[in-house]
Amino acid sequence: MTTSLMIANRQTWLGSGSIQQLLPLLQTEPQPTLLFTCHSFINGPIYSSLADALMSLLVGSEVVAHEASPQEIDAWVARWRGKVRRVVAIGGGSVLDAAKAFAALVEHPLPTLRYMEKVGDSKVSGATLPVIAIPTTAGTGSEVTQNAVITDTRFSKVKASLRHPNFVPQVAILDPDLLKGAPDQVLVYCAIDAFTHLFESYLSKTASSLSRAMSLAGIQHFLSAWPMLKHSDEAREAIMQASYLGGLTLSMAGLGVIHGIAGEIGALRDYHHGQVCGRLLLPFLELLDGSEHPQQRALMAELAQYLFPKEQDSPERFLIDFITRHAIIPFWQNDLPLTREELAIVLEKSNSKNSWVTYSEQQRQLMIEEAFPIA
């Protein structure tokens, strides 16, 4: 039996209007607080209703426009070191990851690159400022993960994490109202990222009975939300729960070959991570449909029995059909090219992570070539 460790927030608020908990949280324990956020939140109605009261409780703010680079994090640390004792993050996964990275590295002496997985030579100590994480998208689950993803597409060509159990935000506020007005493509790319987290952690060879049960619950939330992302308060709450559970289960069980490839593509191209994962998901399901690996077959049979018992013949085909037929935009059709040189780099660096099967270079190339046009 696999041992399971779950590390989560000290407090998690969920529900419509729950962002109203932020002001009392800040007022109860006054201390110098820095806000990380994004333009879409600042320009929205919820920020307008909070702005006057919120700004009086902050020492400043930083706007995150994309996945943070090591150089940007180093600049924030230089600007705010010694001036901040708490961080609030309101935004998508890139905002939350940037805030978590800053909160940790402002308590560390070396530049960001020295601590990053894959390229760093120093371990993080676990020292961090407390973080209050409030996602405005539902995909990464960063509000409950212990890693902060950093992307450097200019110099080191790497997408990697800072990782420590202490980096899980102390507080998460999951308010589905923050998803209202999000562009269709953002809703879809983030939701398919959440599904990929849940699905890969469910299939992980390091998953436990607890993490698999949570993955199945999250996938059920995804299936109920996916066709109705634009139109339903219930769907918005369901996809936020799916994203949160995906963050928990990826931390508990790890991910698989989809993320093993997607991370390397993300280091080379500024494509939306969720869209990359979604495009790789479809050929992966095709590959999985032909698998005779006993653990994979047993897990897929269990998933089908739990989620759609009338579709036992090919749960993989059912998922392909459901995801493509009910998608509010065809996320797999946009022209996202890779060069032959980039393909070679991705094949060299990618891996199968925690999959039961070690996918060969030929199998990984098949997935990539079916998902992306190779120029």
Structure, described:
This protein is α/β, with parallel strands linked by helices and 375 residues long. The protein is built from 14 helices and eight strands. It folds into two domains: 168 residues, Rossmann fold; 189 residues, Dehydroquinate synthase-like - alpha domain (Dehydroquinate synthase-like, alpha domain, Up-down Bundle), CATH 1.20.1090. The strands form two sheets. The protein has a six-stranded parallel β-sheet with strand order 1-8-5-4-2-3. α10 runs antiparallel to α12. The chain is globular, with a radius of gyration of 20 Å.
In short:
The chain is α/β, with parallel strands linked by helices and 375 residues long. The protein is 48% helix and 11% strand. The strands form 2 sheets. A 6-stranded parallel beta sheet has the order 1-8-5-4-2-3. Strands 6-7 form a two-stranded antiparallel ribbon.
